[in-house]
Amino acid sequence: MPTATWNNTIIAEAPAGDIVTVEGNMYFPLAFIKPGILKPSEHTTVCGWKGTANYYDVVVDGKTNSDAAWYYATPKDAAKEIAGHVAFWKGIVCKI
Q1: Which end of the chain is less crowded, N or C, counting CB atoms within 10 A of the terminal residue's CB?
Q2: What would the mean pLDDT of 62-82 be, rounded to a whole number?
Q3: Count of H helices and E strands in the chain?
Q4: Of the candidates 6, 2, 13, which has an alpha carbon nearest to the alpha carbon of residue 65?
Q5: How many CA atoms lie within 13 A of 76 on its CB side?
Q6: The domain containing residue 89 runs over which residues?
Q7: Residue 34 belongs to a domain with what CATH number?
């Protein structure tokens, strides 16, 4: 089962069929992310074909990885398959 791990903790785990991979990034359904580890961030970026990305800080065992997760609250039509999904970076290891 694909996982996302940070600070020696699995923070997301989902069946392979529920993962969406876009531009090399694994997007996990929000329902499969460990509760309580995502904290809203004020940071946003814009992708020309996906839309505006919103970010989360990832908090595990009192340690914070700022803006280490992102999602598209209202992705453009070309990226509609990532709606309701979250991707990770900044040292978070995602693997199948």
Answers
A1: C
A2: 97
A3: 0, 9
A4: 6
A5: 9
A6: 3-95
A7: 2.170.150.40
